[in-house]
């Protein structure tokens, strides 16, 4: 894992002290809320429905056990005993006091964490594949590139006040596990015909009120031009992105309005210009970063045998584990979606337990996934049963990855001041209705995603089934969308018709699963059947 | 009636204007009539609260009920965590929101 050097540490420490002074001035009345708001947002401190909310960055979703343990301790000491893991691989605390914030940030800084780049119109915390460095299907670990981009983008003076927020994801496998093409810039590390590693760039994707899939803008950027090309993409956006209307300010609108080809032409022109005034960090810097990601000292020649006699364990292994690149190891995903639970929430004790398991059984590493789960990336198969037992005793052993129980849900009207409707109660009802092992086995992979308003923090556009909360004359109402996907086959979900009440939407999903099961051919998933037969049979069953 | 809500500067807690100060309990809200904007200007100026705004509400037999669900959730707490609301022991509290 990346370790701060003295510059990193100094930057973060300085920032904490600066914010401490800003908070002091705010509390003493020297600063008004209007003056203070941009300062607190730059340090991850929002105001939500009930209280201040602090969003802590987890760069590319990677944590060590000391960091994870501290996240649990903060939940106990400064919050109300829990935290919420988000779709951008970060964590949010819902009940933070302003006067405590400088101390929290100081504690985070001690373990090389902060809340910078979690708000505002800057380049946000960069996300990545939660299986990076472990996945059997990756061509290279994407995180050194994500880290290089993080260093380039943190406090980049030119990009501190972009037209709007800017989100980057970096992956390095065919199977996209980071919704890469739904980011402002998506980067896929690839190998060219000559065997060299480079970056494929996509730009102009996003969710929010106008969802767009990012088009490919360059097939191959050599490693010694990576930052320069990213800079060119950002420059064109910074120059021409709309600042007059915040709903049209994201890069997706610029790429859409200019057209992909014209945007590419301008980027290439800027890129050629930038190449004449070298801004690329030396490759030695990339090498320095890479040295932190050489990966753990895996034991060689371990057996791939697993004792699957315990049926509950067998179910969990089947659902929640993924092939590791090293024989004898496995990637384990811990579901934060118990039946009837709150998606993405974990108690302080659960967070500390996962930290401990990461330390003892996963080479000190954990990951946060964009589906609001936690990953133990490097578990020896021989230890897997012990790990699962410990998880299960703590309510973390649910076997439901990528099924109807594994719902992504934003905080919605229970916590969020922008919401139109609650998301979490809908998620709870759905997981109660469809969360049983039998139902899951029957229905299989079905990714359901819920947002409490059009901002789409819950990725509803990318759900096989998406749910969007709307306000219908003061009452909560839910629109249903079908056919989204965020993987290598990214597609945007479409609204199927008039909205529903909370119970109505759960019934409609039941009918949709019946249509799927009646029409399913072979190994088809819900999404495949939907793509083949189209929306009509579903509409007929639901509204008919 | 028109009532006022905001957040306590230090703690962020949701508070309601009682006529003389701020309370955690929406039932202690007073009707501010047309004076909302003036009270907000004075109270925010004094750095007691921030992000305050006027809310439509109704006086019922059970107390003060904000007209919109958003402010009712603000007044009670998250409906999905009854243990963290202002009425953790009252199983009916959630029905008041909905
Ligand atoms: C509770 C405080 C939150 C606020 C005020 C908030 C606000 C917003 C807004 C305004 C947008 C739309 C931006 C745009 O299209 O320009 C947005 C998008 C988004 N947010 Fe949030 N959000 C919150 C929480 C969350 C949480 C908890 C998550 C993860 C569960 C999240 C993840 C995202 C994602 C993934 C997007 C869409 C991607 C994009 O197009 O940028 N947000 N958020
Ligand atoms: S989608 Fe809307 S309701 Fe949900 S967290 Fe984002 S802004 Fe809030």
Automatic annotation (TrEMBL), chain A:
Residues 52-110, 342-394 form the Nitrite/Sulfite reductase ferredoxin-like domain. SUPFAM superfamilies: Nitrite and sulphite reductase 4Fe-4S domain-like, Nitrite/Sulfite reductase N-terminal domain-like. Residues 119-273, 406-542 form the Nitrite/sulphite reductase 4Fe-4S domain. One of its GO terms (molecular function) is metal ion binding. Keywords: 4Fe-4S, Heme, Iron, Iron-sulfur, Metal-binding, Oxidoreductase. It comes from the Bacteria. The keyword Iron-sulfur applies. This is Nitrite/sulfite reductase. The lineage of its organism: Bacteria, Pseudomonadati, Pseudomonadota, Alphaproteobacteria, Sphingomonadales.
Automatic annotation (TrEMBL), chain B:
InterPro entries: DUF2849 (IPR021270). This is DUF2849 domain-containing protein.
């Amino acid at each position: 894992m990346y370790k701060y050097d003295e510059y990193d540490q100094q930057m973060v420490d300085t920032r904490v002290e600066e914010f401490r002074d800003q908070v002091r001035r705010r509390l003493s009345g020297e600063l008004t809320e209007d003056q203070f708001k941009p300062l607190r947002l730059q340090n991850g401190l929002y105001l939500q429905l009930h209280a201040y909310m602090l969003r802590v960055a987890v760069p590319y979703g990677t944590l060590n056990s000391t960091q994870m343990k501290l996240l649990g301790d903060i939940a106990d000491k400064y919050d109300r005993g829990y935290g919420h893991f988000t779709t951008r691989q970060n964590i949010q605390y819902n009940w933070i006091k302003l006067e405590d914030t400088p101390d929290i940030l100081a504690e985070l800084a001690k373990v090389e964490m902060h809340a910078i780049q979690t708000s505002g119109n800057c380049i946000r915390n960069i996300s990545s594949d939660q299986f990076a460095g472990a996945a059997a299907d990756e061509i290279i670990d994407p995180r050194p590139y994500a880290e290089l981009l993080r260093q380039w983008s943190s406090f980049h003076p030119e990009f501190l006040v972009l037209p709007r927020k800017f989100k980057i994801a970096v992956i390095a496998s065919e199977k996209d596990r980071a919704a890469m093409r739904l980011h402002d810039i998506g980067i896929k590390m690839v190998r060219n015909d000559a065997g060299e590693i480079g970056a494929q760039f996509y730009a102009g994707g996003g969710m929010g009120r106008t969802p767009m899939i990012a088009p490919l803008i360059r097939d191959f950027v050599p490693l010694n031009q990576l930052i320069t090309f990213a800079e060119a993409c950002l420059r064109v956006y910074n120059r021409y992105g709309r600042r007059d209307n915040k709903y049209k300010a994201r890069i997706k609108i610029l790429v859409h309005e200019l057209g992909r080809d014209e945007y590419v032409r301008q980027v290439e022109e800027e890129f050629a210009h930038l190449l004449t005034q070298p801004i690329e960090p030396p490759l030695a810097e990339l090498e320095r970063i890479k040295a932190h990601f050489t990966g753990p000292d895996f034991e060689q020649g371990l057996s791939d045998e697993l004792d699957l006699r315990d049926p509950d364990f067998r179910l969990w292994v089947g659902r929640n584990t993924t092939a590791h690149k090293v024989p004898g190891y496995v990637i384990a995903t811990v579901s934060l979606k118990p039946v009837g639970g709150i998606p993405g929430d974990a108690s302080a004790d659960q967070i500390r337990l996962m930290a401990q398991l990461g330390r003892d059984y996963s080479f000190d590493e954990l990951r946060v996934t964009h589906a609001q789960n936690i990953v133990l990336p490097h578990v020896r198969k021989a230890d897997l049963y012990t790990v699962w037992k410990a998880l299960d005793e703590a309510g973390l052993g649910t076997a439901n990855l990528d099924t109807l129980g594994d719902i992504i849900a934003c905080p919605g009207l229970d916590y969020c001041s922008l919401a139109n409707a609650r998301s979490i109660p809908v998620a709870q009802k759905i997981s109660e209705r469809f969360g049983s092992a039998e139902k899951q086995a029957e229905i299989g992979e079905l990714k359901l995603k819920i947002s409490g308003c059009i901002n789409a923090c819950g990725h509803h556009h990318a759900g096989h089934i998406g749910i969007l909360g709307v306000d219908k004359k003061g009452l909560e109402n839910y629109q249903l969308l079908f056919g989204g996907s965020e993987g290598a086959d990214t597609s945007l979900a479409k609204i199927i018709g008039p909205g529903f009440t909370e119970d109505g939407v759960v019934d409609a999903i039941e009918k949709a699963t019946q249509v799927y099961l009646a029409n399913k051919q072979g190994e088809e998933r819900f999404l495949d059947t939907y793509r083949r037969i189209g929306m009509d049979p579903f509409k007929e069953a639901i509204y008919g | 009636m028109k009532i006022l809500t905001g957040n306590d500067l230090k703690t962020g807690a949701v508070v309601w204007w009682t006529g003389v100060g701020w309370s955690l309990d929406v039932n202690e809200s007073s009707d501010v009539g047309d004076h909302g904007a003036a009270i907000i200007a004075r109270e925010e100026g004094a750095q007691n609260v921030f992000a305050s705004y006027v809310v439509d509400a109704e006086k019922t037999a059970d107390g003060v009920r904000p007209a919109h669900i958003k402010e009712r959730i603000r007044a009670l707490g998250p409906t999905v965590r009854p243990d963290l609301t202002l009425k953790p022991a009252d199983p009916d509290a959630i029905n008041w929101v909905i």
